[in-house]
Amino acid sequence: MKKLVLLLIVLSFSCKNDVSKKKEIIAVVDTSEVVKDLEIYDYDGLKPFLNKEDNKTYVINFWATWCAPCVKELPYFEQLNKNFKDKNVEVVLVSLDFPRHYEKKLKPFIIKHNLQSRVIAFDDPDQNKWIPAINKDWSGAIPATIIYNSEERKFYERSFDYEELENELLTILK
Amino acid sequence: MKKTLKKLFALIAIVSLSAFTNIGEGNGYKIGDIATDFSLENIDGNMVSLADFKDAKGFIVVFTCNTCPYAVAYEDRIEALNKKYASQGYPVIAIMPNNTDVKPGDNMEAMKVRAKEKGFTFPYLMDKGQKIYPQYGATKTPHIYILEKTKKGNEVKYIGGIDDNYKDASLVKTKYVEDAVDALIDGKEIKQKETRAIGCSIKV
Predict the structure, then answer these.
(1) Is A66 an 8 Å CB contact of chain B?
(2) Inside any domain, residue B10
């Protein structure tokens, strides 16, 4: 960690003249810190993430390391997070991996893919309670995605490519 | 030119197929609908239809597979359902809906191996061509449809999950499928006709 801070300082000095680059470097998430303190929530803990009423637009993606179509579309969510960070958009990746797989599958995955979006682990076995509460039309299949802000909310039980995902976000950002 | 056309058709087929499966739940059966029968290949090589079960009063149709962790978590409970209810007139009929080109771990050979390992006593059928699951409106594995034989046909009585705890069978509070089948056997109204459960999207 100390080394990283030092590196950031050096980098930020060396990029003094390149403001955008500097910003990007400082924003890098240290995934080893993420997995050390992996955020784990049940539905009561997850709910606030789905109902924030600030000036941000949130893209919430339900995924799991074992879900092939989820893993396939994950880079698009990462790209979206990067491209829209300065437009007040935040991507949150909600993992439905089983708790017994956190150490062997989820955490190594976060590090290997250097996930920069916020990752939270969601563990609540009472699915019949929270699936319809999250969206009445959700059958329970993943991947599933919510895009919302204080004015609008959309739910998608489907996969995306980057262009589709950005288009959907733009319909809400306007 | 011919090749390009072929490719184009294949592309159109793929696009329209994926568009179709993205529509979600809206298109499948609702409670009270009459479910289609089918003729699908079982792991023993025979073709199986609902009509073959002359003595059945209904069916517990389970869309499931080998490769989905949720389906795997429920394997023993699906087998237990068949043990408990086949003799009472409600056998389990398991259907594997995935495209096996996408999920080779769900192909017929793998299904046979898995069924043998787990000692499945119910038919484990392949939805070859993926024609049946869209009619039911299954979106994921596992996804359960309880049917009751009526004069009109096999009427859909319950759609959803097996119980309220995928993680730990010993912590289950409500057994949705058992409660529903018990109600049918007793001639009572099913309390919870639809429930939701997480599952792996069906692979097309």
Answers:
(1) yes
(2) no
What is the distance between the alpha carbons of residues A165 and A161, in angstroms, rounded to a whole number? 6
Contact B167 A138 (CB under 8 A): no
Per DSSP, helices labelled H in chain A are 2-14, 19-26, 31-36, 43-50, 68-83, 107-112, 127-134, 162-173
ipTM of the complex: 0.74
- Which residue of B lies nearest to A158 if distances are taken between CA atoms? B22
pLDDT along chain B (204 residues), means of 10: 59 48 62 98 98 97 96 97 98 98 96 98 97 97 97 97 93 97 98 94 93
- With an 8 Å Cβ cutoff, are A128 and B195 in contact? yes
Query: Residue B18 domain-assigned?
Result: no
A139 touches chain B (CB under 8 A): yes
Topology of the domain comprising A31-173 = Glutaredoxin (3.40.30)
The domain of B135 spans 27-201
